[in-house]
Amino acid sequence: MAKKKAFVIRIDPEKLAAIEKWAADEFRSSNGQLEWIIDKALRDAGRLKKSGEELSK
User: What sign does the dihedral 30-35-40-45 (CA atoms) show?
Assistant: First the structure.
């Protein structure tokens, strides 16, 4: 498994509540849900290689 880097995020309480609900509905942690959302957005934008290891330039 790839190493992961921790970081702090500021988010509107309403958005966080929506993410927490969505995560619970899909049996994920809030952190896991955020990672999934970011991964999907990067793939949809063509910014992530198929292997998922590096951002494309």
Answer: positive
